[in-house]
Amino acid sequence: MIPPLYWNDEAFRVDLLDQTLLPVEERWIPIETPEQMAEAIRKLRVRGAPAIGIAAAYGVVLALRRPESGPEDVRRAIELLRGTRPTAVNLFGALRRMEAVLEAYRHADRETLRSRLLAEARAIEEEDREAGRRLGAYGLELLKDGMRVLTHCHTGGVATSGYGTALAPFILGKERGVRLEAWVDETRPLLQGSRITAWELLKAGVPATLITDSMAAHVMQQGWVDAVIVGADRIAANGDVANKIGTYGLAVLARAHGIPFYVSAPVSTIDFETPSGKEIVIEERDPREITHGFGQQTAPEGIRVYNPAFDVTPAELVTAIITDRGILRPPYPEALAALRAQLETEATTPSTT
Fold first, then answer.
1. 28 with 4: CB under 8 angstroms?
2. What is the pLDDT of residues 280-329, one digit of tens each?
3. Annotated catalytic sites, by residue?
4. What pTM was computed for the model?
5. Kindly report the CA angle at 163 between 223 and 284, in degrees rounded to 5?
């Protein structure tokens, strides 16, 4: 799989795949400043909750690219990147980790601070890569050979650092000889499904069929969908799931047709501090994404537009949450509380290695 970015040691910069140009062009752009990284995140040149977190972490490192830079530049970069997108929790988790490094080494010399920040960013990237493989393995416990699985938006390698989240079972299944067929929602209004998911699945050799979002109910009604699997931008403590707009509708359709609805996400996407989906801030994007999609005017001037980037699927519509630490099943408040306790215990237990 193609990752969303590479750290370029020699040039001390990030080389980032511009996802807004896919699938027509695979262009790598140099990112040398936190400001450039913030622009890339806002403009969706890099997208997908895990990838945004990784990109933001490296964006913080770039604050120390100039010889005269120091801790205050790092702090300003963290605040700048924190304001780029409000919904995906991975962004804030990554920035908290980078801020902790800053606090621990703010009185160290510049080279030490720089190397520690870079090491933390690399750790965030590597942890996500390993999480993707585990997500794929757990997903294959639920998605069996021959199943036809509908997915929404894009949740593959360039949305993460390797296998992806909801696409991870497809990719790992290909490696292991498990045949899964994908129904790919185009995902309005920015078409991440048709532009990126379809592109990645073709590259991986996974059988896939592209449909418009409005066709999902029809293919379910025909009995052609065995399961739905989606990613997440934030999972609340009660199991409510914020994901790309249209996800909630798919969950309702899946319930109506007796189809399991799975959410696949690393534990870094779980926001234990947010009680429910009601507290999740939903990003609203530029109306021109709808009225002038990809430069072509498709709506009359002056029409009012509502363009939320995400919706919230209630926990009661989710059959299972696949995490890199195992499969969670209802009741989700209890399952998530147990997972949180496990993670906190591990964090305070001294390593024996």
1. no
2. 999 999 999 999 998 899 999 999 999 999 999 999 999 999 999 999 99
3. 233
4. 0.88
5. 75
Annotated binding residue 85: yes
pLDDT tens profile 102-120: 999 999 999 999 999 999 9
CA distance 180 to 173: 7
Residue at 58: amino acid letter: Y
Residue in the block written with tokens 């998605």: 143
Q: Is 353 strand, coil or helix?
A: coil
Architecture of the domain made up of 5-133: Up-down Bundle (1.20)
**pLDDT (tens digit, 9 = 90+) per residue, 196-225?**
999 999 999 999 999 999 999 999 999 999
Distance of CA 32 to the CA centre of its chain: 23
CA distance 54 to 131: 13
244 is known to lie in a ligand binding site: yes
48 known member of a binding site: yes
Q: Residue 199 contacts by C-beta under 8 Å, 6 or more apart in sequence?
A: 22, 23
Domain boundaries, the chain: 5-133, 141-348
Q: Would the annotation count 192 as a binding residue?
A: yes
Give the CA angle between residues 155, 344, 116 to the nearest 5°: 70
- CATH domain 141-348 topology: Rossmann fold (3.40.50)
Please tell me whether 297 is known to bind a ligand: no
